[in-house]
């Protein structure tokens, strides 16, 4: 692995994956170009599956990175550029439509706190997606562990941020519940315990580059799609139910997998500086899952029954898309291959 002190800045490694991402990257860094709306429609027309299309998903990632301010190379004056916002809307409509068509959602429960919580737990327990955490615990090599962390860095170095967009859009019990969860995610007032920072320590401990964006060029579209889905749900007020359901499922599928990830890291000889992040989530998310299922999702459904369908859709989408990412990694490793893309020189 390249010494991070000598590595180029992550933003210098961003490489377009097609005509649309090339044009949008240029626009976000201050360059003009062709009418972006036409390019967006052409990109959608040329892809078979928007959820795994490199050009589309990198474009969405870049547009969301502008909103987060996560990549300094992106000109802040272009964040609300009407042409770029128009491109984002075109791609989001296609991405959302693809998700709603592909993600199976169970029958809706009654819009009560108890019924919604029970339905969410039943959905999680019924999920038969690939068990990436068990593979990491028992079989993963050091190289695969590093790939796992590189894949996870796209979201986890920004952990909790997509869900925080929901805070000003909630009120009452759901708002208080989300703030309680997010306060823990952001360290409870201790900068060294911010979960993204603890994850960065784990990344450094395995010899990887902990700067945000360092591995954007390495991860496949399906990994970008997982983060993009969260960003789309969080940034669009009309999808408030979906981001709440997503967080509920996310927290409810975290505690046991993180224990297994920690076991795998210890099996390979990694110390506390690497396992700390995963150990932290074993206990924290066991508490968070109850708050998220009942006080957040259940209470929101009770207050706003019109959001119930989206709450369940967001939870189901979390399981389906994260399962797709896990399947990609496991399939590659079981073939003896890397789960990463071949990096294309700038």
Structure description:
The chain is mostly helical. The protein folds into 2 domains: 10-102, no CATH class; 113-334, Heme oxygenase-like (Heme Oxygenase, Chain A). Helices cover 64% and strands 0% of the residues. It is built from 15 helices and no strands. The protein has helices spanning 19-28, 36-46, 54-68, 82-102, 113-126, 132-138, 142-156, 161-164, 172-185, 195-205, 221-235, 240-252, 255-267, 272-303, 308-334. The longest helix is centred in the C-terminal third of the chain and has 32 residues, at 272-303.
Compile the SSE list and pairings.
Blueprint lengths: L18 H10 L7 H11 L7 H15 L13 H21 L10 H14 L5 H7 L3 H15 L4 H4 L7 H14 L9 H11 L15 H15 L4 H13 L2 H13 L4 H32 L4 H27 L12
Summarize the structure.
The chain is 64% helix and 0% strand.
How many H/I helices? Answer: 15
Helix percent reads: 55-70%
> Low-confidence parts lasting 5 or more residues at pLDDT below 50?
1-8
Beta strand %? under 5%
CATH class of the largest domain: Mainly Alpha
Largest sheet: none
Q: Which architecture of the largest domain per CATH?
A: Up-down Bundle
